[in-house]
Amino acid sequence: MYSSYVSVHLVDHPIAQDALLQLRSKTTDHGQFRHLAHRLSVVVTLHATSDLPADPVSVETPLERTTGSRLRTDIVVVPVLRAGLGMLDAVLQLLPDARVGHVGLERDEHTAVAGRYYLKLPPIRSTTTVLVIDPMLATGGSACATVALLRSVGARDIRLLCLVAAPEGLRAVEAAAPGMAIYTSAIDRELNSQKFILPGLGDFGDRLYGT
Question: Helix (H, G, I), strand (E, B), or coil: what is residue 136?
Fold first, then answer.
């Protein structure tokens, strides 16, 4: 399903929406929060990877030879630290052969501008599928900075996976990277004056790690 933003794929699967509602609840403790974030990340990842390239392969079953498809393995997953780590296990559960890079970005609480403090990427080619995972797309600053970094090292097929997005963040990414695919389970109403998403989930990292 597509939202009103043409590059956004809204994941409205019932399992995703059930997990999302429980994630929103302020009574969900951090153990439950991790479990629900993993479940929701699996569903979002399945949607984001439905068109990954595959090659025809034949194998011998115990009874006869048959043919099927095998995924190509040129996939890189890039969690935006620290919150993106909350989605990483779910993605690797589905794509165990994917390589992993890390981008550390921290938002200034006063300016909302993302500053980079860490970058470590595996080799990326123009044919590599890159999945950027960041649970909350708020202002879009971190996402735009990450996409710019990835493009500078040659990435072309970049997909952004998040659990909740704000319209402001979607517009920022669309302006910086027109047509780039964004996958999310919700487009929320707006940002508040502190740049938190409303109704949102609160601070994802704090709720994930109990900090």
Answer: strand
Q: Up-side HSE of residue 110: CA atoms within 13 Å toward CB?
A: 0
CA distance 144 to 159: 12
pLDDT, tens only, 123-154: 999 999 999 999 999 999 999 999 999 999 99
Give dist(CA 40, CA 21) in Å, integer.
Answer: 10
> What does the alpha-carbon distance between residue 51 and residue 175 come to, in Å, rounded to a whole number?
24
Q: Residues 95-116, buried b or exposed e (16+ Cβ, 10 A)?
A: beebbbbbbbbeeeeeeeebee
Q: Cα dihedral sign for 169, 170, 171, 176?
A: positive
Q: What 3-state class would DSSP assign to 166?
A: coil
Q: Is 173 exposed, middle or buried (0-12, 13-18, 19+ CB in 10 A)?
A: buried
Q: From CA 4, how far away is CA 58, in angstroms rounded? A: 42
